[in-house]
Amino acid sequence: MRKIAFVNEKGGTCKTTLAVNVSAFLALEKRLRVLLVDMDPQGQVGKALGIDVRDCGRTVHDLLSDPKLRPTDVIQPSRISGLDLIISNKALIDFPVTVAREVAPERKLQQKFDGLEGYDYLIFDSPPSLGLTTINILLAVDEIIIPVALTYFALDGCCEIVETINSVSESFERPDLRVSMVIPTFYRNTRLADEILEKLKEHFGGKLARTVIRYNVRIDEAQSHGLTIWEYDPASAGAEMLREVSQEVLRNAKKGSR
Ligand SMILES: Nc1ncnc2c1ncn2[C@@H]1O[C@H](COP(=O)(O)OP(=O)(O)OP(=O)(O)O)[C@@H](O)[C@H]1O
Ligand SMILES: [Mg+2]
Question: Is 220 in the pocket of ligand 1 (CB under 6 A)?
Answer without folding.
Answer: yes
